[in-house]
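Quick review question:
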């Protein structure tokens, strides 16, 4: 799979991307908002990349794809579709801290959503984040998600203040 926008390219992982995955995962926002997606070593990242590569061609997920800036072919993060309860899907994304504030996350999510919704045969995709993650809430809004809930809810197995939205094709 390959998706292009004016500035970005979204494509499949290769093993040589493990170092970038490791480095992109280490910023403080990732540690705070998605600690289960922090890779302390390149070997940890490589193991995960191998698993993610094994998911390509399947439709049961997770389906995770790296995001590159076309101008310099720099890997700046990822976008993903992850199955959640009852056959529903959730969007996920992370752009490395030094690349935030440039609209890359919104651009990647907006391009990725319709393609992946068709791939997994769904008409709705959920966007769920911690309520305090203002940047992520902004990305979801810019990408066409509508708020359906904000309050106390389950987030990675803990009761936290969450923001839940939905995108419909």
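Suggested answer, residue by residue:
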């Amino acid at each position: 799979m390959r998706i292009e926008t004016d500035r970005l390219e979204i494509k499949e992982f290769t093993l040589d991307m493990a170092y970038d995955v490791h480095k992109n995962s280490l910023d403080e926002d990732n540690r705070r908002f998605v600690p289960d997606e922090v890779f302390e070593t390149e070997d940890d990242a490589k193991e995960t990349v191998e698993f993610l590569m094994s998911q390509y061609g399947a439709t049961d997920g997770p389906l995770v794809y790296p995001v590159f800036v076309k101008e310099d072919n720099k890997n700046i993060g990822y976008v993903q579709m992850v199955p959640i309860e009852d056959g529903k899907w959730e969007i996920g994304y992370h752009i490395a801290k030094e690349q935030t504030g440039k609209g890359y996350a919104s651009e990647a999510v907006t391009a990725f959503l319709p393609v992946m919704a068709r791939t997994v045969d769904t008409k709705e995709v959920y966007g769920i984040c911690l309520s305090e993650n203002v940047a992520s809430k902004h990305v979801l809004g810019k990408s066409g998600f509508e708020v359906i809930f904000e309050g106390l809810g389950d987030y990675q197995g803990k009761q936290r203040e969450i923001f839940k939205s939905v995108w419909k094709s």
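Why it works: Strands lie at 2-4, 8-11, 63-69, 74-83, 89-95, 124-130, 146-155, 158-168. DSSP finds five helices and eight strands in the chain.
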